[in-house]
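Can you make up a protein sequence with its backbone structure tokens?

===
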Amino acid sequence: MPKIFEAEDGSGVNACEICAAIYFRPALAIPINSFLDFFAQMKRPLRPLFSILVFTVLAVTLSLRILVHGGYFSSVELENKVVVREQLPVFNSTLLKYAAIDVGEEKDKQEIERLLEGNFDGPGRYRTFASWRKFHHDVRSKSSSSSSGIPLSLRSPMFYRYWLDFRRNLNDWARKKRFQADIMNDLVRLVKHVIDNHYGLNRLDRKYESCAVVGNSGILLNSNYGELIDSHEMVIRLNNARIERFEKHVGSKTSLSFVNSNILHLCARREGCFCHPYGGNVPVIMYICQPMHFLDYTRCNGSHKAPLIVTDPRFDMLCARIVKYYSLKLFVEEKGKSLEEWGSSHEGSLFHYSSGMQAVMLALGVCDKVSIFGFGKSASAKHHYHTNQKAELQLHDYEAEYAFYHDLVENQRAIPFLSDKFNLPPVVIYH
């Protein structure tokens, strides 16, 4: 190859030598100053064409070096391995901001403060308290001009003990009520360890090998998933759905009963606070819909042989943010409506995740594999397989929750608010 730079003694360098020197050495192998010194030593002038060629080679080689070592091809690897960088998820920042806003937060705080003061005034709260008094006839409420509303006359030692437990439980729950993405990594300790203790198992940090979350959709009546459901190590059922006469479709095994506190409130009216249709030995876990329901929890917790676990409020807040994000995304990006209209279309501060959604989230935290049954709807199917209900509750956005389930199966990185430290398990949905 002809030499681009040639001295009188015949020595010189060609284009390939320049490229190799620059590309393969850790720093620029031939600094610019060296080229200038070389030019100064040259006694005969360079031809213009060769000058242009030199600077062209320099520019191309330096550009390649920057691309390789500056990051564009930084996924090209060491030790003959190729690592392809994962594309980071892109979330709508406006929707993230709105999803993080708890519209009913201030109202809930005021409600909790009144309850901790012993104020049970108001139609909703008084109905719950009236149910409570049914079992404690010597507890009386009397009118008062004080700001605390209706003070309690604590004349029963039993009620006084319940009252102290109620205040402690409610206060602890309210104190923890904040967003914490890492809470998913604590679910084994908060839930699984309690269940393992109950069943006399060692409190291992390993997760359940497989979990089935059984929803209540009428589409289950078109399936024969009973044996498949029962084959899972952990079977989670929702809101005391009946299984008698439906075993062929929904199975018969129940490891954990997941309910909301509205269900427990109904149970509190029954003799012995009966709320375990799957057997008294099956643990129950629930989320709190209203702070007042801690009265029901306090009373029923003492009558249950199996654990009655309240979900951690940090977990509740994570679920709420995820569902609201999907609801906002569906409302704005797919339906083309404005954010300002969302509240009036979804019951405002009453908007909430469903029991099924939170049961799935729980399974994601305590199971290595998650199977979902009975989630979805059909025009020809009942809303619940065990009832005649067909209408959906407006305070839930089931379409948004179905979009969330889809991402659990197809695109887990699209799910917002989860900590990078938490790895989602594989999920299968059986339709």
Notes: Confidence is low (pLDDT under 50) at residues 3-8, 18-30, 67-85, 136-154. The two ends are 70 Å apart (CA to CA).
